[in-house]
Amino acid sequence: xxxxxxxxxxxxxxxxxxxxxxxxxxxxxxxxxxxxxxxxxxxxxxxxxxxxxxxxxxxxxxxxxxxxxxxxxxxxxxxxxxxxxxxxxxxxxxxxxxxxxxxxxx
Length: 106
Prior knowledge:
The protein is of the alpha+beta class. It has a single domain, classed as Beta Polymerase, domain 2, CATH 3.30.460.10. The protein has six helices and four strands, in the order αβαβααβααβ. Helix 1 (4-18) packs across helix 4. The chain is globular. The chain starts with a helix and ends with a strand.
């Protein structure tokens, strides 16, 4: 299981790497009882980006690699998150309504 200290360290590394607006955790670490096989699911929200969504996570992979904790990081722009989170069938809606915000930028 991933400790609160590791989650905090992951958040700090992602803040340093992305300078995000917000960071959420979701999945079992946010709304369930995680076990040893569960990944830490993280959503990072940034102001804007010209990169494709699938490429934005490369920085997170590098930042979190030495933690040796199983993570799944998605990076959305604010506009993407605002749009996707309006659809009640989307993962973004679930994250916005049930996820845990662990970071809010200034």
